[in-house]
Each structure stands twice: as C-alpha cells, then as structure tokens.
C-alpha cells in the first residue's frame, strides 16, 4: 500500500511537531547543499524554529550572502523604477505617434497635405470620403423620414379632432334648431301693442341666435283691474 496524502497544516502535538521539524530541516539543508554543488550556486539558508532557535546553511559565507542579497535587492528596485519609466516613455511615444497620424489623416480628409500621397493612397482616400458621404446621406434621409412620419401622425390627429369638433357643432346646431321649432310652434299669445317683441322674434329667426324664455308680469291693464292673474312670456 502507498503512503497516504499528508495534509499540510499545523501539527498540534508538540512532540510530533519537533520531530517533523527536525526531519524536514535536515532534508531542506541537504537539498540546498546539492543545489550549491550541482549548479555552482551561492546558497544561503536561514531557519528559525518555533522555539526561536536559529539554523542556517551556506556554502560560502552567510555575511557575504546577506550583503549580496541587499545589493541585489536595491539594484532590482532601481532597475524596476527605470524599467517602469522606460515603459511609460515608450507608451507616450506610441500615443504621440498615433495622435500625429490622426491629425494628418484629418487634414487629408479636409483636402490638405495631399502632396505626400500617391495614386493608390488618393484612391483609398476618395473611397473613404464617398463611404462617409453615403452614410451621412442615409442618416439624413432616415431623420427626415422619421420627421415626416411624425408630422403625418400629428396631422391625422388634428384632422380627427377637427372632424369631432365639426360633428359636435352640427349636433349643437341641430339641437338649437329643434328648440326654436318647439318654441315658435307653441302659438304664444302676443299683445297687439307689443310690436317690439314681435320684431325681436323675427330678428332672432333671421340671426339664428339662442332664445331665452323668462316669466314676467302681464302688461294688460284690464287684467289688472279685473283681478284675474295671467302669465305672459317675455323674449330676450
């Protein structure tokens, strides 16, 4: 049977933890020594146990390894900053070149700085302008079509409203006509002396205006003397 997979986690048992530390430290130092011999590498290894005890290994001198480490680290930081600055400078140069190309292309589209172009470049520029002009015309036609459709829709709505108002006007006119027919067909008694009222009725028929009926006191003097009440109509 093969060995089971070891779970990499902290060993809670103190004795087992110390035994494992000793075994693995020995194996780690052995691998470091083999690396230094096989690859001609300068190796420095420092390990502190959980109790604070120091264990180290080096194939040269620990002091020289540490000094070399600090020098290499500082140099790496400087090199990193320099490399980053060069990277941004290169990006800035690329952006400047792209901006210059865009400005030059814009001027060429405006018909300027064409002396450096050959026949093929001029043909490509002409095709680009024709395509742009065609797209602009299509967009303009689409906008005009949309506006015409919107105006037609508004015109249809206004036409419907106009028809509705016309029908309402006809209904009101017909109702007024029927009311006048009913009023004038009742045979209202007129006073012989009241010619102004009669003339007013004729004018109302000619002018086609609304008629207002109100109750008023009778104007006959003989009726007042006899004491018999009577009702009369006054047209205004």
UniProtKB/TrEMBL annotation:
<keyword id="KW-0804">Transcription</keyword>
<feature type="domain" description="K-box">
    <location>
        <begin position="85"/>
        <end position="175"/>
    </location>
</feature>
<dbReference type="GO" id="GO:0000977">
    <property type="term" value="F:RNA polymerase II transcription regulatory region sequence-specific DNA binding"/>
</dbReference>
<dbReference type="Pfam" id="PF01486">
    <property type="entry name" value="K-box"/>
</dbReference>
<feature type="domain" description="MADS-box">
    <location>
        <begin position="1"/>
        <end position="61"/>
    </location>
</feature>
<dbReference type="InterPro" id="IPR050142">
    <property type="entry name" value="MADS-box/MEF2_TF"/>
</dbReference>
<dbReference type="GO" id="GO:0046983">
    <property type="term" value="F:protein dimerization activity"/>
</dbReference>
<keyword id="KW-0805">Transcription regulation</keyword>
<protein>
    <recommendedName>
        <fullName>MADS-box transcription factor 23-like</fullName>
    </recommendedName>
</protein>
<keyword id="KW-0238">DNA-binding</keyword>
<dbReference type="InterPro" id="IPR036879">
    <property type="entry name" value="TF_MADSbox_sf"/>
</dbReference>
<dbReference type="GO" id="GO:0045944">
    <property type="term" value="P:positive regulation of transcription by RNA polymerase II"/>
</dbReference>
<dbReference type="GO" id="GO:0005634">
    <property type="term" value="C:nucleus"/>
</dbReference>
<dbReference type="InterPro" id="IPR033896">
    <property type="entry name" value="MEF2-like_N"/>
</dbReference>
<dbReference type="Pfam" id="PF00319">
    <property type="entry name" value="SRF-TF"/>
</dbReference>
<dbReference type="InterPro" id="IPR002100">
    <property type="entry name" value="TF_MADSbox"/>
</dbReference>
<feature type="region of interest" description="Disordered">
    <location>
        <begin position="217"/>
        <end position="236"/>
    </location>
</feature>
<dbReference type="InterPro" id="IPR002487">
    <property type="entry name" value="TF_Kbox"/>
</dbReference>
<keyword id="KW-0539">Nucleus</keyword>
<dbReference type="GO" id="GO:0003700">
    <property type="term" value="F:DNA-binding transcription factor activity"/>
</dbReference>
């Amino acid at each position: 049977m093969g060995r089971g997979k070891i779970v990499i986690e902290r060993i809670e048992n103190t004795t087992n933890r110390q035994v494992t530390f000793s075994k693995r430290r020995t194996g780690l130092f052995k691998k470091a020594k083999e690396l230094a011999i096989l690859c001609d590498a300068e190796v420095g290894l420092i390990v502190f146990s959980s109790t604070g005890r120091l264990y180290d290994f080096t194939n040269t001198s620990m002091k020289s390894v540490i000094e070399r480490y600090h020098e290499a680290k500082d140099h790496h930081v400087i090199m990193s900053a320099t490399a980053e600055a060069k990277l941004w400078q290169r990006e800035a140069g690329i952006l400047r070149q792209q901006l210059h190309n865009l400005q030059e292309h814009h001027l060429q589209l405006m018909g300027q700085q064409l002396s450096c172009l050959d026949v093929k470049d001029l043909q490509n520029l002409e095709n680009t302008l024709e395509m742009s002009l065609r797209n602009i015309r299509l967009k303009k036609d689409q906008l005009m079509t949309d506006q015409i459709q919107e105006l037609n829709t508004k015109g249809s709505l206004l036409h419907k409203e106009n028809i509705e108002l016309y029908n309402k006007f006809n209904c009101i006119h017909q109702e007024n006509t029927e009311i006048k027919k009913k009023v004038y067909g009742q045979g209202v008694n007129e006073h012989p002396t009241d010619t102004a009222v009669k003339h007013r009725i004729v004018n109302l028929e000619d002018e086609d205006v609304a008629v207002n009926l109100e109750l008023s006191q009778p104007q006959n003097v003989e009726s007042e003397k006899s004491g018999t009440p009577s009702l009369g109509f006054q047209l205004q």
